[in-house]
């Protein structure tokens, strides 16, 4: 063992016995430090300004007894509470920290809410440990750190542990409602909030919240808390609305002979979500109604058999959390044919004709086969100064000349379309405006040309005198 060097006299080896003897000599001083007056422990202390969450202005640090160890007193809980308050926890959080939950947490007998968020709670405890060391200006015993970790876990779990989803409740506009505070007793001391705002105590009947004459503004998230600990007891997401009235349903074929569509709406709003269900029958056969990609209250049905004498029946039902309603219509294929209005209606004056206007338009682009299923048109026009329309029906063509216009008056012109054989007229097209041709006014001379000087004297007989140059 040439590599080992025996201990010298200057470097004595302390045996286990000597170390124990040294610890026994130091015990009285340590016990004296633990028996400090709790009032001295709880005295205000100055802390660094950089410590986050610390409330300033609590006073200067009092002098410590000479030789006193700045460790925890025999009962460390009051000092733990002070440190928690100094690092910024709210007063109601600190009130929750009693000896009983701390002891339970320290022994591992914690509630499920603490266990589910223990990892996050311990992360929150780390800055508290640092704050405690800074306040005490000395290392913190590990046993006290464990107590502090458990205490912080209790508070954090009660405030930040995942809560159950709020109970969703729908109530009718104008009605009265009573919201219970979960399973709390009727006489439990609770506080209610809506969307984070405290509600007046006179709205409470025991622990229950009573709302009269519900309005739309009553909708919101209601929460019930224990008055002392601010522990969340119950949440209700309240929606105020109305049951649906009978829906308005209509069907139309603007793409004949390809198919038709049906659309629906409610006559009055319900203020809450509604669910619609549409059923289309051709005789006894169920037809597919494809949803419109752009309009949510519309679906499309393709014709399976043209010129069928079997009627179609379309039924729609609507329901929400407060009620249900339904309606249905029955029709023949040809009765719902209605083209879209003609497009690109243009009116122009006719040169040198002060009473004529030339009108042109195009067949609606949604009409799939104007050759096989031709359209006829209906034109109406009037001067802006009059309210009475004049009408012209055209069996074919996409142009017409108005021959009885008032000269110099602006006209408004619209066109409608209809299948030659079946269906109804379309809505009127976008209006076109035009004014008949008018002749440009001729410029008349208003100043009489005066005769020259010689003509004037010739007419009057007065001699003319010429000056010599």
TrEMBL record:
<dbReference type="InterPro" id="IPR003599">
    <property type="entry name" value="Ig_sub"/>
</dbReference>
<dbReference type="GO" id="GO:0009897">
    <property type="term" value="C:external side of plasma membrane"/>
</dbReference>
<keyword id="KW-0325">Glycoprotein</keyword>
<dbReference type="Pfam" id="PF00041">
    <property type="entry name" value="fn3"/>
</dbReference>
<keyword id="KW-1003">Cell membrane</keyword>
<keyword id="KW-0472">Membrane</keyword>
<dbReference type="InterPro" id="IPR003530">
    <property type="entry name" value="Hematopoietin_rcpt_L_F3_CS"/>
</dbReference>
<feature type="region of interest" description="Disordered">
    <location>
        <begin position="449"/>
        <end position="469"/>
    </location>
</feature>
<keyword id="KW-0393">Immunoglobulin domain</keyword>
<protein>
    <recommendedName>
        <fullName>Ciliary neurotrophic factor receptor subunit alpha</fullName>
    </recommendedName>
</protein>
<keyword id="KW-0732">Signal</keyword>
<dbReference type="InterPro" id="IPR007110">
    <property type="entry name" value="Ig-like_dom"/>
</dbReference>
<dbReference type="InterPro" id="IPR036116">
    <property type="entry name" value="FN3_sf"/>
</dbReference>
<dbReference type="GO" id="GO:0097059">
    <property type="term" value="C:CNTFR-CLCF1 complex"/>
</dbReference>
<keyword id="KW-0677">Repeat</keyword>
<feature type="compositionally biased region" description="Basic residues">
    <location>
        <begin position="16"/>
        <end position="33"/>
    </location>
</feature>
<keyword id="KW-0336">GPI-anchor</keyword>
<comment type="similarity">
    <text>Belongs to the type I cytokine receptor family. Type 3 subfamily.</text>
</comment>
<dbReference type="GO" id="GO:0070110">
    <property type="term" value="C:ciliary neurotrophic factor receptor complex"/>
</dbReference>
<dbReference type="InterPro" id="IPR003961">
    <property type="entry name" value="FN3_dom"/>
</dbReference>
<dbReference type="InterPro" id="IPR003598">
    <property type="entry name" value="Ig_sub2"/>
</dbReference>
<feature type="region of interest" description="Disordered">
    <location>
        <begin position="1"/>
        <end position="72"/>
    </location>
</feature>
<keyword id="KW-0675">Receptor</keyword>
<keyword id="KW-0449">Lipoprotein</keyword>
<dbReference type="GO" id="GO:0019970">
    <property type="term" value="F:interleukin-11 binding"/>
</dbReference>
<dbReference type="GO" id="GO:0004897">
    <property type="term" value="F:ciliary neurotrophic factor receptor activity"/>
</dbReference>
<dbReference type="InterPro" id="IPR036179">
    <property type="entry name" value="Ig-like_dom_sf"/>
</dbReference>
<dbReference type="GO" id="GO:0004921">
    <property type="term" value="F:interleukin-11 receptor activity"/>
</dbReference>
<feature type="domain" description="Ig-like">
    <location>
        <begin position="162"/>
        <end position="224"/>
    </location>
</feature>
<dbReference type="InterPro" id="IPR013783">
    <property type="entry name" value="Ig-like_fold"/>
</dbReference>
<dbReference type="GO" id="GO:0008284">
    <property type="term" value="P:positive regulation of cell population proliferation"/>
</dbReference>
<feature type="domain" description="Fibronectin type-III">
    <location>
        <begin position="341"/>
        <end position="441"/>
    </location>
</feature>
<keyword id="KW-1015">Disulfide bond</keyword>
<dbReference type="InterPro" id="IPR050379">
    <property type="entry name" value="Type-I_Cytokine_Rcpt"/>
</dbReference>
């Amino acid at each position: 063992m040439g590599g080992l060097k025996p201990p010298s006299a200057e470097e004595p080896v302390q045996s286990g016995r000597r170390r124990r003897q040294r610890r026994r000599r130091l015990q009285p001083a340590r016990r004296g430090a633990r028996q400090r007056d709790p009032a001295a422990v709880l005295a205000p202390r100055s802390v660094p300004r950089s410590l986050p969450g610390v409330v300033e202005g609590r006073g200067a640090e009092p002098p410590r007894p000479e030789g006193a160890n700045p460790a925890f007193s025999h009962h460390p809980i009051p000092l733990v509470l002070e440190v928690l308050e100094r690092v910024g926890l709210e007063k109601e959080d600190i009130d929750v920290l009693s000896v009983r939950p701390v002891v339970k947490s320290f022994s591992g007998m914690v509630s499920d809410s603490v266990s589910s968020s223990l990892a996050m709670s311990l992360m929150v405890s780390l800055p508290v440990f640092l704050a405690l060391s800074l306040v005490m200006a000395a290392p913190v015993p590990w046993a006290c750190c464990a107590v502090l970790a458990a205490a912080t876990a209790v508070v954090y779990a009660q405030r930040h542990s995942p809560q159950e989803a709020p109970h969703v409740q729908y109530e009718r506009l104008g009605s009265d409602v009573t919201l219970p505070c979960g399973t709390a007793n009727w006489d439990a001391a609770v506080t209610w909030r809506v969307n984070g705002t405290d509600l007046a105590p006179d709205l409470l009947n025991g622990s229950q919240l009573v709302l009269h004459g519900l309005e739309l503004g009553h909708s919101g998230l209601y929460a019930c808390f224990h008055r002392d600990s601010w522990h969340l007891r119950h949440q209700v997401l309240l929606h105020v609305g109305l049951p649906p009235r009978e829906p308005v349903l209509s069907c139309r074929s603007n793409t004949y002979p390809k198919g038709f569509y049906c659309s629906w709406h409610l006559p009055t709003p319900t203020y809450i979500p509604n669910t619609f269900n549409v059923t289309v029958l051709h005789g006894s056969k169920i037809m597919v109604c494809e949803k419109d990609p752009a309009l949510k209250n519309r679906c499309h049905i393709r014709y399976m058999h043209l010129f069928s004498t079997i009627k179609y029946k379309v039924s729609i039902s609507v329901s929400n959390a407060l009620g249900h309603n339904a309606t249905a219509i029955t029709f023949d294929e040809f009765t719902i044919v209605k083209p879209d209005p003609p497009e690109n209606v243009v009116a122009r004056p006719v040169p040198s004709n002060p009473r004529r206007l030339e009108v042109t338009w195009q067949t609606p682009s949604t009409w799939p086969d104007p050759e096989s299923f031709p359209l006829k048109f209906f034109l109406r026009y009037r001067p802006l100064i009059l309210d009475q329309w004049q009408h012209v029906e055209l069996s074919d063509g996409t142009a017409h000349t108005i021959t009885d216009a008032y000269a110099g008056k602006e006209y408004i012109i619209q066109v409608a379309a209809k299948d030659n054989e079946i269906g109804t007229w379309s809505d009127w097209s976008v209006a076109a405006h035009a004014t008949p041709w008018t002749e440009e006014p001729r410029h008349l001379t208003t100043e009489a040309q005066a005769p020259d000087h010689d003509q004037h004297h010739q007419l009057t007989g007065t001699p003319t005198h010429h000056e010599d140059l």
